[in-house]
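Dissemination and training. As part of the outreach component of the grant, students in the summer workshop were shown how a complex can be specified as a set of sequence lines and then modelled as a single object. The example used during the hands-on session is reproduced here so that future cohorts can follow it. Participants entered these lines:
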Amino acid sequence: MNRSFHKSQTLRFYDCSAVEVKSKFGAEFRRFSLNRHKPGKFEDFYQLVVHTHHISNTEVTIGYADVHGDLLPINNDDNFCKAVSSANPLLRVFIQKREEADHYSFGAGTLSRKKKVLVTLRDEGLRRRAHLDIGLPHDFRPVSSIIDVDILPETHRRVRLYRHGCEKPLGFYIRDGTSVRVTPHGLEKVPGIFISRMVPGGLAESTGLLAVNDEVLEVNGIEVAGKTLDQVTDMMIANSHNLIVTVKPANQRNNVVRSSRTSGSSGQSTDSTTSQHSLPATHVLQNFHPEELESDEEADIVIEGTLQPQSVPRMQGAASGSLSRANGSTLTHRLQRDLALHGSVHRLLCSLKADPRHSLVLPQGGVEEHGPAITL
Amino acid sequence: MMKFRFRRQGADPQREKLKQELFAFNKTVEHGFPNQPSALAFDPELRIMAIGTRSGAVKIYGAPGVEFTGLHRDAATVTQMHFLPGQGRLLTLLDDSSLHLWEIVHHNGCAHLEEALSFQLPSRPGFDGASTPSSLTRVTVVLLLAAGDIAALGTEGGSIYFLDVTTLALLERQTLSPDEILRSVPDDYRCGKALGPVESLQGHLRDPTKILIGYSRGLLVIWNQAAQCVDHVFLGNQQLESLCWGRNSGTIISSHSDGSYAIWPMNTGSSPTLQPSVATVPYGPFPCKAINKILWRNCESGGHFIIFSGGMPRASYGDRHCVSVLRAETLVTLDFTSRIIDFFTVHSTRPEDEFDDPQALAVLLEEELVVLDLQTPGWPSVPAPYLAPLHSSAITCSAHVANVPAKLWARIVSAGEQQSPQPISSASNWPITGGRNLAQEPSQRGLLLTGHEDGTVRFWDASGVALRPLYKLSTAGLFQTDCEHADSLAQAAEDDWPPFRKVGCFDPYSDDPRLGVQKVALCKYTAQMVVAGTAGQVLVLELNDVPTEQAVSVASVDLLQDREGFTWKGHERLSPRAGPLPWPAGFQPRVLVQCLPPAAVTAVTLHAEWSLVAFGTSHGFGLFDYQRKSPVLARCTLHPNDSLAMEGPLSRVKSLKKSLRQSFRRIRKSRVSGKKRIANANSKLQEANAQLAEQACPHDIEMTPVQRRIEPRSADDSLSGVVRCLYFADTFLRDAAHHGPTMWAGTNSGSVFAYALEVPAAVAGGEKRPERAVEAVLGKEVQLMHRAPVVAIAVLDGRGRPLPEPYEASRDLAQAPDMQGGHAVLIASEEQFKVFTLPKVSAKTKFKLTAHEGCRVRKVALATFASVACEDYAETCLACLTNLGDVHVFSVPGLRPQVHYSCIRKEDISGIASCVFTRHGQGFYLISPSEFERFSLSARNITEPLCSLDISWPRDATRARVQESPKLSQANGNPSIILAPQNCDRSPDLTHKGADTPEPPEATLSPMSIDSATSADTTLDTTGDVTVEDVKDFLGSSEESERNLRNLTEDEAHTCTILIK
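and obtained this result:
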């Protein structure tokens, strides 16, 4: 709702060369402007920000909200440039003290998602930083993830494709086929839906989580059994902005193996489009909650006509106000989740170490075969 | 944030009960003309008529409102039908040579048609020589002997079998073989040749013991059934087509394959008659086609009628479909537009009467039924009160207007009466008057409007069971069309001989495809309507009771709005005739608006109170003030990348349509060829053609497996700019304090445009508003993120009810809308329904149909459902037809799924596309080009035939038979009949439906509730014999998939031990 008002403004000031910047540190806001066409260097911007907030003596990280409502970092000239050029019209900047900064909160849906279930494995992140110092990711967002590992049979895989914010096509085709099911009467051939083709360079192919001849079992939590190919096509397209497909992979060798049913884990692969570094996959514990389907859907765009221009500033205020409130609530929410999950994560890590299979040496090609899909 | 999620609600018993009181699905009646009729019968005693079709359907019609429908289990062609006079029983012969006995049975005071018995003539090898092909026992003709209980069956082999009708048992000893007949024939006639198939069997009205037998070779024999001997022999040598035995037994008339007919004198001498007294080729001397059927009827006033079909000169008129009526010196050649199936006369059949005195001639054609009044000089045709050929020109759109005010109704009826030739005599002269219509007088009048390809709009009385034509509006007269004078020239060139008379209204050929009507809207309070067509023409008309002569003002609206880079490659716009034109009483055009480019109009809406008409095409939409005759607004909705939209209907869009049509034909053909039927040369040719057509289609489609691309819709998908719906509402668009006129438009790409209109208010008491310009300001623009086509928009008032129609509230016909509470707008796209608040457009509730069910919305309508239990309780709900042919009902504004039923086969795309809902929870869709199926979703508002017939036959006899005949068990292979015993007695129509369309059995049974548990209950209830295992299986099936998953997990858990690091 609020976002819709925010977007309603987008067209009005598009031509102005000045970019309005709204910078937030803690509960404080500062407003200034930048030249859209000559944004300058990141260093200067950094200085300007710490100066306006009177925090010159503290190390801070700077992030901004991009057009999709994702929190992305500003830490070099490139992504600063991109932030300014993509701001339409308002550039919302978020500042955190570096020691408090949560690096893994950058990414898709981090701002827009009201109901937050994304939880960082903070302890692991800290541990990693201690060992080797990897720079902040420059401009990335998740494009896919495996979810619900803890509740699905190990032979199945539930893949979530994040479509928005990505110019790539989803890039796959489905077909009719037959699959063999175990029934009380023995093995039975039943009709099923399969992935028939991947478009090279498409989102589905680049994730490596889906492959040709994988059987599609569910689309966004709804079983496809008994549905025709056209019905499943329509369901997938209707859910294409946030597609969650449960498949039975044709190749069953790369399945996620877990030793305990109580804890969940999943890998999240990321697609870095502009970064020079090769990124290690982030480790995100994530479960699929049906509510998410509704809440993180992109809202329809409403463009207000020119009926009441006087009401525009008022709505602007309301939008940003509620945004900050939303942020506050998610932070506390996340904190609670962290505390609650800490124990189980720890157990998971211990159990992984204890698992004898963990020490199995994989043939080199085993992982490559399906890309950097799953790491544990 | 408001959230809505579809959850499986715990069954709220109260709500469930209410649902049962509100919703019920019934397919009630078929309106229109039966598709592909193949047989005709008439019962002169009960005055009812039966029509059989090639799909095996039997329909019986009496007085308007009296209708019975049945369907044979085998979808075989009904070749002959014979009523057992006065008994309400019908013997049908299918093309698989099986005989079926149908009975009209009364249940609870209402009559229904049920099949009682069936019989197949055994093909006996070795009966007539060593090898007898089964075709020799194929039944060619059936005669019910006047005595009543015996039927004589003539066969291909020349034998005649006798059958006890009440039991359909063969009377073995009476079989009459051709050998027996040949014994009575002189040797020189015999000369070793067979007599050929039995072509005709005729009984005599006064002497039931005698049968006139005609063999194909030309031999006519009078057989005395009582004495078992040949009474007389007529040695005809011309190949026989049909026979008729005159009432006074003095004459026999025979018709022949060379186009001649012969009259044979009846002399009592035992020597064979060698020559007919008269033999003539009526349309000679050049070779003529066969006379397929001939009737002889004498009259009290002297003379006789000879009525025959065919016999036309082969070379010059061999392609005409003609029935000739000859009385004394008067010959009229009735020239029909479609093939003649059969005909009969309505005449006296009492044996004691001296004369036939035919009153009427009824001719069943492939596409219509024509009845001629033979007692009125000139033999005018009698307009039929039902069986209207809906498809006299192809139906292109339809609309339903409920609760038509009596005043408008009377005006339309009177306009229609002025159109038809004999307004007064028509009703009284309809000869088929059997039965009594028990249905109550309809509580309200419903008008069905159909738009046709030839530019006409037909108004039908859809209030009751009989769909009656009221009035026909033609828009073609306004335009200059290409082939205008072709018709009159052709007529002038025609000779006086044969004396052709064009009869019937079936005319499938459109002068100009641009005339086709695409959208129709009628304001029932002001009698204004708008008709929009294929060439972008939008015509505003007004009902006028007197003929006038006036000019129509023409305006054009450019919907491209100077967009560059587009050139229209489609058809030209229609050129209107200039100057004042004469208009008959009825709807007369006032204003013509032509869209540019002249693409077909895809949406239209009318607001008579504001004198505004809005229209949309694939390029954009426009708003026109027809009072001031000035355009208000034009907006282009084209996406810059959309090139397809400009190509017009002649290129790719058309070819898609064409290929669809072809594939339907292929489906239909394969369905036909799958039937048991004798493949004649014609159908073989068709099959060969179908195969050729299949081969001709591109190979890459068949080579690659069927696969579907998964990609979200993008803004530049083709035809994204098509305007799908337009809507006027008086609501809050600017702010929450002031409401005012608004216009809404939805496009194919999920865009909604909302305009605030400045309509000058009418002066108090004045009808017309002051002459000030209407202004439109864009208020809101909504882009649905899923980008699915917007199919409907409606504004809900403060109480969540849809706003009334213009004038509806002000004329005290509807409750005034609640303008206090916040309004909301319901936007239905092909994928989901959403309710947004107004004036701040924010999502309130939604239901994502496609994401959940995998089906797409085809038609939606807001309908009021009244409760059967409580007189004044009603709910407004959203009725929705999906691309799978299911009908769903959702609550408004909560958008909760209520019930869903499977209604149309999902392969029947034209049926789905033709569906139209009424305001009170009924609907219509085309089941064939000529028939509307009427269905109701409402438990209260049901329009179905309720009729009775006075039948005279011994009841006890049949009762016993019905019990011994294992009717249900015969229905093997068609579970819907077995499964629906309780539906059977309620309406044979429903049983027929179930068998007709391969729907899942539960489809016809009962509403399928959302909750799977309740649907399971209903299925089990209706199954006749359920075993314990069945129940187990059934219960198991719901959990099966779950168990499968578990099984799979267990099975494969230990196999995949590879860990990925």
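Chain A touches chain B through 76 residues (CB under 8 Å). Students were then asked to discuss how this feature might be tested experimentally.
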